[in-house]
Amino acid sequence: MNDSVIITISIGLANIVMALLLAPFCQGVMRKVTAIIQSRKGPPLWQPYYDLLKLLGKEDIESGDSPVMQRAAVYMSLATVLTIACLIPMGLSAPMNSAGDVMLLIYLLTFSGICTLLGGLAAGSTYSLIGISRQMMIMIMLEPLFTVAIIVGAVHAQSFRLDTVLDGSVYMNRGFPWSGVIMLVIMLLSFQAFVERVPFDISEAETELMEGPLIEYSGPKLAVFKYASMVKLIIYSALLIDIFFPWHGGISMPLQWMLFWLKIFCLVLLAALVAATHARYRIDQAVRFFALLLAVGLAAVVLAGFGY
Amino acid sequence: MFDQARLNRLKERFGASLLRADMPADKRLFLYVEPSALKDICRYIFIDMDARYVISIGVDDRPFSGSFMVVHNFAFDRDHLLCSVIVLIPPDDPRVDSITDVAPAANWAEREIRDMLGIEPVGHRYPKRLILPDGWPDGVYPLRKDISWDHVPEGFDGGREYLFDEPPEGCMVVPFGPFHPTLDEPSHFRLYVEGEMVRGCEYRGFMVHRGIEKLSETVMSYNDINIMAERICGICGCVHSVAYSQAVEAAAAIKIPQRAKYVRTIMLEIERHHSHLLWAGLACHIIGFDTMFMQSFRIREPIMHMAEKITGNRKTYGLCVIGGVRWDIPLELHGEIRQLLDRLEGEWNPVVSSLSKDRNIQKRTRGVGVADRNAVKNMGLVGPVARAAGIDIDCRRDHPYAAYDRVEFDVITEQGGDVWSRLLVRAREVFESIKIIRHCLEKMEPGPLQAEIKDELPVGRMGLSSVEAPRGESHHFVITGENNRPRRWRVRAPTYQNLQGVPLMIKDQQIADMTISLGSIDPCFSCTDRLETIDIKSGVTKIWSQEELQKLANRKKA
Prior knowledge:
By secondary structure, chain A is mainly alpha-helical. Chain A has helices spanning 3-37, 47-56, 67-87, 102-123, 126-157, 162-165, 178-194, 206-209, 219-244, 253-276, 283-305. Chain B is α+β, with helices and mostly antiparallel strands. In chain B, helix 9 packs antiparallel against helix 10. The chains are: A mainly alpha, B alpha+beta.
């Protein structure tokens, strides 16, 4: 076994462990910040860990239409986001750089959404069906948006390699990076939708659909699903940082790694702030909003093609 | 003033069919009419004279006059007059002409009369069971006088299911309720949904009847009912208690002391404060804006503390007795109440000004759940729902009671008729309430709290009272009776009318707007579901059958 394999495995493992360890903490930070905005005291920062542990210890009830699919959806959901964690650079270099390119990344991101759809479909309740129909509409609009961002980067970098694209590729050009800046704005505007928080938590909308696709989940499976969604917040934050804010000012390794996680916390804070100050949009309003963003995004690809 | 000329016009037009017209007080009018002319007279009053439909009441008057009685109440808001159209119906074949094609707002009230008294509304377009539980046998009418309050009918079939209508073609059925996170009480809307659009719905409610009206007619006494009336609603209990007391006082012509009027006014307005703030919070929670939910509950909390300080309770104040109030608002508390009002004003002002500029909330509420002027008129919608559609009605000004004729306030109206307008109306009404309490504190003078009532209350008199609850007009109708209790007491909470407007509001709207449309009327299901004779546990699960549950409950009791 040569050194590079060991390094790849250990960096991948480090990413997974960090994502799993810190995801509930980020959730806790979000809850605390929300509480402060709402003049509440809020739960302790460690509350999401307790919540997960408690759910994991509960009776495992399989109440949906097809339990096999429900089970599969849960595990695949977590497995997918953890696979993504192995692929992308999270403060260290991209671990499994040679295992795939950015197209694989796009497929995996889509797949994690499909897991939620499967879960909702397996539940078979009216509410979950409405939930997945909304989820589907959102996915149809969001996935191209992310793809566009990556393609803009790929065009600039003239490559589909993970480490090249996920390293601020959108700015890799002579002159002022117009397309990169446009994409940055677009991605920030749709960030809440990627991480499924208010005002775009439309498919789960507790007060309308009672958690939509998750309606038949309880106990350990719900815990796994929740865990996956917490990790998703980290993954999407990491992707945003990799594509748009990779700079570390040439500081040395451990500091650079810490800076990365600091950036993640900043994005988590931003997500909490937006979620606490907005009302939920309706699905048609959201779709119209994303359609506008997508149109602008496509224009950015064209700009990138001309070298701007 | 409803002048004599108009009464004469009515008499001229309907001649002999108008049997009798009583005007016991200058703001009440009782018209006794021939059954055959009932519909025409109601049409003339509702459409030509443009009165507002309030409620219909069925009465089993057989032990006294030998016949059934149906009363349709109308309000002439600009003339400050409440009017009852009364018709006596022979006991052997109780039928009455339905007025629903004249006033669609009478839909529920007539079905209720049919359920509870067995008076058939002839020509009603949709005479489906409304109130009685699904398993209740046909032909047993709980509000008839020959049925005792604890009567258990033979042949009650707990397994019988309610037959819902067929959904229209191409529509999926989405059950909204009986339990749903945004419903605080059980109620069932069966939505017909096409894609994300609601095409129609069927409502099945009345799941938590507590038999309050029957109890009052058979077991309680005049002053007990005050206590019970307050428990009709967990939010606007004081309104019901005041409305009931006023109805009895109107029937028996009791004049209550000035100070009692002021105390009632202040407590009613404190109740409006807490209710409007609660609503603002819940409405924002429904559209996913939890920060506003938390903030408005924080602002509301000191009001609850003040209520507790004055009455000993955060809610259910135990305020009214017939002829006055039970306790005073002592002078020591006046300063504290003023401080509270200042603080409330200071905190609510920025909230309202930032809310009214918030485009995000406007996006979710503008043009949503619209009830226009026509809907308000036809369905008899009241309160903020009517005022948001530009209909300028408010019982505090139109049918002044307590001390409202001595204070100055504005009636807030908006033009949109949508959820957004309702939000603005409620938000701004908070300031008017602050004004009213300040006026009251200034003008209150020392004096007695209760009128002295020496004799028994007169028997067989009718009393009406409308009180502006936070949700709209709460209307109580009382016929005084023997044994120190009323013969008939009918409560019409504002939600009873407003809920009938919901199917109109949600038709052809997105399913996501359903919750906030329903929420925007500030529904209060327990207020609506006040009438039933037996409390039957309906929690049927796979393990426990209803009978088993009942057996279990009985065993525990024994």
